[in-house]
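Reproducibility note. Readers wishing to regenerate the assembly model reported in the main text can use the exact inputs given here. Chain order matters: entities are listed in the order in which they were concatenated for prediction.
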Amino acid sequence: MANNLFEKIWEAHEVDDDLIYIDLHLVHEVTSPQAFDGLRLAERGLRRPDKTLATADHNVPTDGTPTARLIADELSRKQVEALEANCEEFGIPLYSLGSDRRGIVHVIGPELGVTQPGMTIVCGDSHTSTHGAFGALAFGIGTSEVEHVLATQCLVQRRPKSMRINYAGELGFGVTAKDLILATIGRLGVGGMQGYAVEYAGEAIRALSIENRMTICNMTIEGGGRAGMVAPDEKTFEYLKGRPGVPADFDAAVARWSELPTDEGAGFDKEIEVDAPAISPMVTWGTTPGMVVQVTDEVPDPATMDSPADGEAAERALAYMDLQPGTPMTEIPLDRIFIGSCTNSRISDLREAASIVDGRKLASSLRGMVVPGSQQVKAEAEAEGLDEVFRSAGFEWRESGCSACLGMNPDILQPGERCASTSNRNFEGRQGAGGRTHLVSPKMAAAAAVEGTFVDIRDWS
Amino acid sequence: MDAISLIEGHVAVLDRNDVDTDQIMPKQFLKRVEKTGYGEFLFYDWFRSGEIELEPHPILVAGRNFGSGSSREHAVWGLKDYGFDAVIAPSFSDIFYSNCTKNGLLPVILDEEHCRAVAAAGEARIDLDDQTVNCAGGVFQFEIDEDIKHRLTNGLDDVAMTLARGEAIDRFEQAGKADAGPVTTAL
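Running the prediction on these inputs yields the following structure tokens for the assembly.
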């Protein structure tokens, strides 16, 4: 019988009715303390520390603070120290402040090679969908489920429906994976993938690098999807080869992984076709990732929205963003640039941005910040001299972490500040109370840093 | 978790779609390591700016895609601690819905028209046993997964229930089905 990628992984992990086995549980400081408390309270142990891995990323400072003990913010310090104590008590490997393997949880999993095709992966973070780029079934869970996985290595789950989005043709010059996923969410809406495990397929996806595929799977949750996936191929195997976490018999693993892609003739609950060459560089204008237009467009008029409810939401969003309908996106002046987050902070993202700012300067009055996704990405970038490129252009070059994507550490926007950000959420206050976020690709963020506003990078040089 | 059967009383209304968990519980309150005391931080920015007002009634009616975005369970802890026992909406984000059911906050999916009727009625009674919402505007049936309903009506602990299925997990592992993944402790 023909099966799709999702079905193959799901069926290989069914322990019992609606109970699936979890191959890897990633843990971080913010969504785990109450789960560990729950274990202690019920006097329960951790079933599989060898399938669990922790790091500190969400609230850590990016200023070079070397150990948890020295984190200036008291609550952040206590939370990271709690993670360290919990991992010590339950025997979980941890990369905390000071470790050269530390970084954003969704960056270090692939980097260490513990993210592999065919696995089930969970984490108390909605962007866990990132790992689906390797042909894994990966999704975010809440703290109660974190506790459940710690205790049982399983998760009670109803099987989601399956969706395939097929991207015919190739992306045009200057158009990136970030634009592809923003355009997709703009079309389907922020609830358009709700209840589905989504497989991204087609020529445009096959042509993308593994890191670009991660960007796409990462933002599946912004379309409401349960999980995003891409079938593993030679690029996947090449990316994983030689990484510390991969199986000793790599060839045997590749043979096994090669069985995973969706079979010819396999069905999906829903299929969508997208014309990849028609996708343009995208910029969000509102307060959800679905409020997005082409960079060549204008700020939309709420009166033209599909429904009165959408019109009201657009009006509120424009008031929050302090934008007028009809303003060209290329005439919106910026205050801040943030290059980072689990969406776009990997080495290829930094190379792409650096190639644009190389030899140029940040527009006056702009503040720009580059936050590598992990300490390893940072080291790699520094070995290539990218840190110097960014510094010379006027950017701050920071230590790794989630940073200004969610603003739990000191890297936040001030009220009213407008930021071009390579992150994933433009919700009200996401990057700091009163801050205004426009989601863009690393290329667009870099060009905007030079110009002080958004540009059509297809005809910008 | 307390058992749920009937939830009745006044209705608070948040007539907006796509309300994300960043609004429900802003990031600065996620640094706390406790599970209690989040009610005072609920809708922190929107309440303080006067953008919205919500009475702590037993039932909240909201727009579609409620609880979108971040998986933070703190959003559910906040809603529950503030006083809500049920949220009625046309749709919920998947993770938020699941988080609700782990904390005895009953998520009820009704179509938009029925949500409006409940909001207009101002009072309602939700009967989980027969899966109805009863208000001046009518009696509306809602769907809920049988297992989730069973856990909610009996106030059961998810982890204890799965641990009771330990033999199935043992069998799965002993069959070598859990061996393919990486060994994190050997990195």
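We highlight two features of this model. The mean pLDDT of chain B is 97. Residues 5 and 129 of chain B are 6 Å apart (CA to CA).
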